[in-house]
Amino acid sequence: MPLMRRVVGWTGVAIAAGILVLFAMPSYRQGEASIAGKPAQDFPFAVSGKAERLSDLKGKVVVLNFWATWCPPCVEETPALNRLQKYIDSRNGMVLGVSVDEDGAAYDKFLKDQAVVFPTYRDSTKKSAGDYGTSMYPETYVIDRHGKIARKFVGAQQWDSPEMLAYFDAILGQT
Questions:
Q1: Residues of the chain with pLDDT > 90: what percent?
Q2: Which of 10, 21, 99, 149 has most Cβ atoms within 10 angstroms of its Cβ?
Q3: Domain range enclosing 9
Q4: Residue 39 burial (CB < 10 Å; 0-12/13-18/19+)?
């Protein structure tokens, strides 16, 4: 019986390790095929005092980025998001930043210090991020012109790399 208990115990450890490796793989975390093609979760937001809904942006490619001022990877990727906004703006694409900061003053200071050029919204309740299942920051969803999720990225990205710009050229060229 002790041998059987050991075999069962080690089998459980091996299965748990396998699951952890699967979830840690970049292809699982970055692609998440299970959500590709699903409608983007709609939510209200306000930019420059104007109330809107995510669904109002149908027809645009939206790079929905959940971030926070206290998140070093978020700070790191902000300049690349600024450059991406400038790159996709003329082709009916946009970056929409959703900050989960509770401190409004820190949020305003960050926008000024980083010279953020893309529309942002501060959701101190974290409701919209929670509705998307976001638990790590930054987390970004690319939403196609039909309001469906095309891709999900977890962690900071180099949004203006040649590979990423080629990806956006392709998705912006779709009707």
A1: 67
A2: 99
A3: 1-31
A4: exposed
**Are 65 and 146 in the same domain?**
yes
Structural domain count, the chain: 2
Supply the CATH number for residue 124's domain: 3.40.30.10
What does 23-52 look like in DSSP terms, one character per residue? Answer: HHSHHHHHH-TTTTTSBPPP-EEEETTEEE
pTM: 0.80
- pLDDT for 8 beyond 80: no
CA distance 81 to 144: 17
Q: How many CB atoms lie within 10 A of CB 141?
A: 21
pLDDT at position 141 is 96
Q: Give the range among 7-21, 25-39, 78-92 with minimum mean pLDDT.
A: 25-39
Q: Is residue 22 domain-shared with residue 108, that is, in the same domain?
A: no
**Measured distance CA(42)–CA(32) in Å, rounded:** 19
To the nearest 5 percent, what fractions of the chain are helix, strand and coil? 45, 20, 35
Average pLDDT in the 135-149 region?
94
Whether residues 44 and 129 share a domain: the answer is: yes
